[in-house]
Design a protein that fits this description.
The chain has helices at about 10-20, 60-75, 115-125, 140, 150-155, 195-200, 200-205, 210-220, 225, 230-250, 250-260; strands spanning about 25-30, 40-45, 50-55, 85-90, 95-100, 105, 160, 170-175, 180-185, 190. The chain is of the alpha+beta class and about 270 residues long.
């Protein structure tokens, strides 16, 4: 991936094009957490508004592909994602500009009533058809290096899945007595089995304080999860374990590998 870039380091033409969408930018704050795009920032405008922007050089194939995926799925996501204000390609850069979502990260701890909001949102998103005629990678293809040939067939499906539901991407907004959950950062969207979206949350639930038993019980509320075969779950777990080892090395990946193994416990 290209080196990280601040707002002031973007080419002038890129900044001017972004400002044509959001207005004059008077401040930009980049997050400290890791993002898959070289440029990520919350923008403050002279009119007192805010927007969220992310971008990458078009020659950065991995980051630019993530931006493409996010741009093509945005029109079908409706209220479940931050509205896309602009998909800009200028001076060798691609930049996505979103409406800023004010909120807090979902509380995944045991007993949190926000888990019910998350569950309903995930079930609602499962009713969305993938964008027609738009190429998105199959989950099995994206994880090809982590799967055997037999395992790939077990991860086939036709659902639109986010695949990266870490806490930073789960934002809840309170308005009066209502609550709305946004699923942010669809740059890793794929086509796969619906149950894989829920399986991907398992590790997040454990890190949020759940026991393996309570995490599996929570997942059991979903129809798609209850109909996932054990062999398919085994393929999913194996892929996640191999991915962690590949990215972190054996020693650093050991806790995550152990957590994923408990998904298959009876």
């Amino acid at each position: 991936m290209s080196a990280r870039c601040t707002w002031d380091e973007l080419p002038r033409a890129v900044r001017r094009r972004v400002e044509s969408v959001v207005g004059s930018v008077v401040g930009a704050v980049s997050p400290e957490t890791f993002y898959t795009s070289p440029f990520v920032a919350t923008l403050a405008t002279a009119e007192g508004g805010r927007a969220f922007a992310k971008g990458a050089p078009v020659g950065d194939s991995e980051a630019a592909e993530g931006l493409r995926r996010e741009a093509v799925v945005s029109p079908v996501l409706g209220r479940f994602a931050a509205p896309l204000l602009g998909d800009l390609v200028v001076d060798g850069w691609r930049v996505l500009v979103f409406e800023y979502v004010e909120g807090t990260h979902v509380d995944l701890s045991p007993g949190s009533d926000e888990l019910d909001v998350l569950a309903q949102t995930l079930e609602d998103v499962q009713t969305i058809d993938p964008p027609y005629g738009i190429e998105l990678p199959a989950l099995a293809e994206r994880w090809e290096k982590y799967l055997t040939g037999d395992e790939r067939s077990l991860l086939a499906g036709d659902a639109l899945v986010h695949t990266d539901l870490v806490s930073e991407n789960l934002m809840i907004r309170y308005a009066g007595y209502g609550r709305r959950l946004y699923l942010l950062d669809w740059g890793r969207a794929a086509i796969g089995p619906a149950w894989a979206e829920y399986a991907g949350l398992y590790d997040r639930l454990l890190l949020g304080g759940h026991s393996p038993e309570s995490a599996r019980a929570w997942l059991g509320r979903f129809h798609a999860w209850r109909h996932a075969g054990r062999a398919a779950l085994g393929a999913f777990v194996a892929a996640r374990q191999r991915q962690e080892v590949d990215l972190l090395g054996d020693k650093a990946a050991a806790p995550g590998v152990a957590r994923w193994a408990t998904l298959l416990d009876e």
